[in-house]
Amino acid sequence: MTRSSRMARLGAVLTLALLLPLLVVIGSAGSSSAADSGRVRGQITDTAGRGLSRMQVIWFNSSGKYLGKRNADANGVFAVSPLAPGRYSFQFVDRRPQYDKTRRPQKDVTVSVKANRTTQVRGRLPRGAMVYGVATAGGKRAASARIVAANQYGTSFEVKANNRGEFAIGGLPPANYSLFVWDAKKQWAGKSTYVKWVKSNTSRKANVKLTRKAGGLSVDLYPMSSFRGKRLWVTATNRSTGQWYTAAASSGVVSFAGLMPGSYKLTVPGAGDRIGRTGLVGTVRSGRVTFSSMSLTKRGAWITGTVVDSVEGHGVKGATVTVRDARGTVLGSARTNSKGAYKVGGSWTSQKSLTVTVTAAHGWLDCPDPDRGAVRYGSSSRTGISVVTGRGTSVATISMRRGSVSATKLCVEPKPTPVPTPKPTEPSVPAPGPAPTAAPTPTGTPTPTPTAPASPVAVPAG
Question: What are phi and psi for residue 224, nearest 5 degrees?
Answer without folding.
Answer: -60, -35
